[in-house]
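sry for the spam today, last one i promise. struct tokens for design, 122 residues
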């Protein structure tokens, strides 16, 4: 059974940092492209960042360039999203997802975690 489990969300002040984790079981992460998506209330699910099987990275939205970094630890079968200089508009539920390549269309991802809430507020 494939499971993706996100953790690391929470409440942080503007300008602060968080590191999200996506731990997998039943699936070897370095054989898939792993993306982070987010969804704020009343908004569509938005791609944030993605890491390919070979390790190449792509930002799926310009709004996180220079602030968010995706990485993978193959030994721990875990993907991370380091989020710095957080802004209130980054507030959302963050999900990790697995697919064959990095796509912006969330419908192309076959495996999803349950999400972790990130709230940026003073």
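last one done:
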């Amino acid at each position: 059974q494939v499971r993706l489990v996100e953790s690391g969300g929470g409440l942080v002040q503007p300008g602060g940092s968080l590191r999200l984790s996506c731990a997998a079981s039943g699936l070897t992460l370095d054989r898939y492209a792993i993306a982070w998506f987010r969804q704020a209330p009343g908004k569509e699910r938005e791609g944030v960042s993605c890491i390919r099987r070979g390790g190449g990275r792509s930002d799926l939205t310009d709004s996180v360039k220079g602030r968010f970094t995706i990485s993978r630890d193959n030994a721990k079968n875990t993907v991370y999203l380091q989020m710095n200089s957080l802004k209130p508009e980054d507030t959302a539920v963050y999900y990790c997802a697995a697919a064959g390549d990095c796509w912006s269309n969330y419908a192309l991802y076959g495996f999803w975690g349950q999400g972790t809430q990130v709230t940026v507020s003073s």
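The chain has a mean pLDDT of 96. ok im logging off now
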